[in-house]
Amino acid sequence: MAQKENADPGVPSLPEVRREEPLPPERRPGAAPLQPIALQASPPPQRTFTLDDFEIGRPLGKGKFGSVYLAREQSTKFLVALKILFKSQVEKEGVEHQLRREIEIMAHLQHPNILRLYNYFHDERRVFLILEYAPGGELYKELQRQGRFDATRIATLMEEAADALLYCHGKKVIHRDIKPENLLLGLMGELKIADFGWSVHAPSLQRRTLCGTLDYLPPEMVEGREHDEKVDLWCLGVLCYELLVGHPPFESPSHNETYHRITKGGPCHRDPMFRELTPPGIPCHGDPAPHAAGEPKGWAGPQDMGPTYTAPAPHPPFSLWGETRGWGARDTGAGWGCP
């Protein structure tokens, strides 16, 4: 300021030169427009549950590893199915990996027709799974009460099951044990696929493990061949038959006969409804066997099946969550199909 005051008034003052900072590269002429930067929000803290956070209600199911209870979260009063597994039993049966895989798979599945796994926690002795509560209970028990379902209800259930399975297959998950005991019903009767104990996440969708329930096994599993996600579609067809008729299509008194009907023969049923629905040319064990003229006519039995059939050696019974399933015996559904 002193220089300006003492300057000669007859000499014009030079304009003040302001020094400008260079523009950053992204703001120079011709540069690409600025892109908005998405700020990454910090993930919300994970809540850690304890058993004290729940009011325990009535039991919903019981199994060798523990039980399933109706429970209510204390702060929100939200109803859930609390599945309690004892670590000692899990370790005794050597299924720790199977339990871990079931939790990991269910935690990544969110579909209206798949039972939700909300969270899990554990203490020194137990593992607790916080599951969605399905008020309608097991589809198997409902089928036992009614004997069979009408076509409209079956069509709705099949649509819901197919949509859920397509969602699973899109995520490279194969369920491998679709059956009425593993299907629950929601408040409005909607289907909920549960029990992912035999499920697998297989990016290639190619597996060789024999698993599931004998009446629902597809031919490729029975014959020990490689299988993919289409085994779930086979089970869906068997399920549709059972809901319509009242029992599985390949059910028989012996294991070998069941093997034969799955791989070489056809469904066994004498119900008039089944005969009306069966397209021409589909074999049905239980139809009168063809006999020469003059010979007595009777129901087809093992002696009417042509050359002696040698079924593959039965595999030993396997266990799921500690419950041994014998071949041909249906799971009672009293255990792990919570609720």
Descriptive overview:
Helix 5 (151-170) runs antiparallel to helix 7. The protein has helices at residues 2-6, 87-93, 96-107, 139-146, 151-170, 219-222, 230-245, 255-263, 272-277, and strands at 54-63, 66-73, 79-86, 117-122, 126-131, 137-138, 173-174, 183-185, 191-193, 200-201, 318-320, 323-325. It folds into 2 domains: 51-131, Phosphorylase Kinase, domain 1; 138-287 and 309-321, Transferase(Phosphotransferase), domain 1 (Orthogonal Bundle). The protein is extended and about 115 Å long. Strand 1 and strand 2 form a beta hairpin. It has a 5-stranded antiparallel sheet. The longest helix has 20 residues, at 151-170. It has 339 residues and is of the alpha+beta class.
Jot down its keywords:
3-stranded antiparallel β-sheet; 5-stranded antiparallel β-sheet; single chain; 2 domains; 12 strands; Transferase(Phosphotransferase), domain 1; Phosphorylase Kinase, domain 1; 339 residues
Which sequence of strands runs across the widest sheet? 1-2-3-5-4
- Please count the helical segments: 9
The H/E string reads HEEEHHEEEHHEEEEHHHHEE
Please summarize the sheet with the most strands: 5 strands, antiparallel
Question: CATH superfamily of the largest domain, please?
Answer: Transferase(Phosphotransferase) domain 1
Basic shape: extended
Helix percentage: 25-40%
Average pLDDT, to the nearest integer? Answer: 74
- The stretches of 5 or more residues where confidence is low (pLDDT under 50) are 205-211, 286-339
Beta-strand segment tally: 12
Distance between the termini: 87 Å
CATH topology of the largest domain, what is it called? Answer: Transferase(Phosphotransferase), domain 1
Q: Please compute the radius of gyration using only Cα atoms.
A: 32 Å
CATH class of the largest domain: Mainly Alpha
Identify the CATH architecture of the largest domain. Answer: Orthogonal Bundle
Instruction: Please give the domain count.
Output: 2
SS-derived structural category: alpha+beta
The proportion of strand residues reads 15-25%
